[in-house]
Amino acid sequence: MNDLKTKYKYIEFKERPHKEAELWICLNKKDGTHLADLIYYKPWRQWVVEFQEGCVFNNTCLNDISHFLRQINQIPARTKSPRITAEAAKGDRTLFEG
Q: What total number of domains does the chain contain?
């Protein structure tokens, strides 16, 4: 995964270990604000983006997010299980089950 482009003009992506699954986060390069999570969505067998509430994006940032998703979706998934969201952690585990 060292060949991935993770830094863009306004945003960057960082891999974060998670007890349930692999997780990437999208951060604002200027101030480090957490903008989105990139999660492996098991029913679709691909990575998807889950935006943080209140965040807005222009076409440049959305194109960069799309580019990063295309990169990681070309790599075989290494997840242990589906990504568990805040809703699932509260008991609705059906959200990401296949």
A: 1
